[in-house]
Amino acid sequence: MSGPYLAPGLPQPAAAPDGLDAPYWKGLAKGELRLQRCRTCGGWQWGPEWICHHCLSFDLGFETVAPKGRIYSYERVWHPVHPALKDQGPYLVVLVEIPAAGGVRLIGNLLGDPRQTVPIGAPVEGVFEHHDDPDSPFTLLHWRLVNRG
Amino acid sequence: MNRTLRGSIAVAGVGETSYFKRGQSPDPEFKLALKAIITACEDAGISPREVDGFASYSDDRSDPSRLAAALGCRELRFANMQWGGGGGGGSAAIGNAAAAIAGGLAECVVVFRALAQGQFGRFGQGPRRKAIYGEGAQTAPYGLMSPAQMFAMKVQRFMHDHGVGQEALRAISLAAYHHAQNNPRAVMHGRPLDEATYDASRWIVEPFHLYDCCLENDGAAAMVLVSAERAKDIPHAPAYLLGTAIGSHFRAGASVHNTPDYATSAFKTLAPRLYEMAGVGPGDVDVLQSYENFTGGVLMSLVEHGFCAPDGCNEYFVKERFLAPDGDLPLNTSGGNLAECYMHGLGLNVEAVRQVRGQSSNQVPGADVSMVISGPMVTPVSCCIFGSEATL
Lengths: 149, 392
Known about the structure:
By secondary structure, chain A is mostly beta strands. Chain A folds into two domains: 48 residues, no CATH class; 84 residues, CATH 2.40.50. Helices cover 5% and strands 38% of the residues of chain A.
C-alpha cells in the first residue's frame, strides 16, 4: 500500500484504559488478528467483554485467527462528518464476518476503487495498515476482495 | 393481578415550543423545556404546581429537581430517565410515567424532551478528540462515526436481503414533506419535496440521500399524564394509553455491529407485546407516527410491526398509501423528524395524541387507534398506542 486509505487526522485508536481490548491492539501492531475466545466453552465473541455470553465464564482469552472473512454489509460514505475527511471524497466501509471465529464481525475499509460495486457475501482478506505516529502508534485492519479468478 | 396499562392512563395535555433550525433558538434549552411544560399544563387545565413527576430519555439535560423547583411543584415523587440514546426512549418515557401513575408512585407526570443544539453541540458530527478507545476505536478510524453511518450498514443489508429499491425509502420521505406543507409548525413548511428533487439530492451515505435523514433542531415538547379517572375532569377528550412496549432483542447491544439479528429496527420482540397489551392488531391502526432518524429505519419498523411482509416492501411503500386523510396508513402526519422537527421523536407522540383528539393539521377522520414507533435501530427502543374513549 502506498499510503493510508483515509486522510490523516481522524481520531486515533488506543487500547481502553481498563485493559479489556489490549490484546487486540497489540496483535494488530504485530500484523495479527486476535479475537476474544472463551477458555471454558470455546465460544467466540466480539466486541470484547469481561464475561463469555455463551457460558458466563470469566476465563476469556484472545486467539489469533487468519484475517479472512466475508462481506456482511457495506456503505459508501459521501458526506464528511469530520474535518479530516473534507477532501476525501467517497469511501467504503465494510462489515466483515469471520467464519473461523464463530462469525463475529469487524468494521474496516474496503481497499480499491471507492466507487466499485461491493458484493455482499464476497470473500475478503485483511490488510494491516500501520501508522507510525511516534507518540501513539496504531494499526488498522482493512480488507480487499480476494481474487476469485 | 391484571398486569396491563391498557386504558388506565390518559394524556391530559400536550405542549410544544416553536421549532427552530439547530442553533437558532433564542432561548436556552432549560427555558425551552419550561415553556413546553407550561403549555402542556395549560392544555390539560392542570397547574404546574400539581405536577409531581418527570420522565425523559436520551440523557436529557433538564434535571427534574431543577424543573420542580423552578415550577414550584408541591412535591416531587418520580424522576425518571430512560437509558439509551437517540429517540428509542420516546414512547418508553411515556410507558415509565404511566407505570409510575398506575403503580401509585405519582399522580401527575410530565414527559418531556428539550434540545438546543446550538447551546450543546450537534448530533450528526464525528468526534473531534485525537485519541479514541472502546467501541469507537473500532469504527471512527475507519470513517464510521455518525448516526447515519452507523445505521446505513443495517439498512443496506436489509435492502440486499429483501430486494428493496430506493423508491421505497423515497416514499417515506415524500409523505413526511407532503404533510409538513399543511403544518405551520413544521420547519419545512413551505418547502415541498418531489420525486425529482429527492432523486437528484446528494448522498449522505448510501442508501441515504439527504432527504432520508432527519433534521437537527432546537425546541421542546411535553405531555402531561394522569390516571384515567382524573382525566375525566380535563377540558377536552383525553387520549388513553392502550399499550406500550420497551426493549430490544437478544444481544441487540453487542458492540461493533455484532448483534446476531443485525438488519433489524429492533422491534421484533416488542411488536407482539405492544399489540397484546393494546388489544389491537396492525389492521386496527388508523394512523401511525414512525420515528425517522433515517427512512430505512421506518421501513424496517413497519415490517416488524406487521404492516408489510419483508419481501413486499417495493409494493407496499408507495407515497399515496401514507398520505392523510385517505391513505391506507397515514404516516408521520405532522411531517415528523424529517420535515416538522427533530425533537428526538417526542413530537411524534404529541402528533399521535392530536390525531386522537381530532386536532392534527393532517387529520385522519375518525382516528381512534393512533400508534407511535420510537427510535428504530438503537437499543432499547419503544412503541406505544393511544386510543380514543371509544376504544376502551
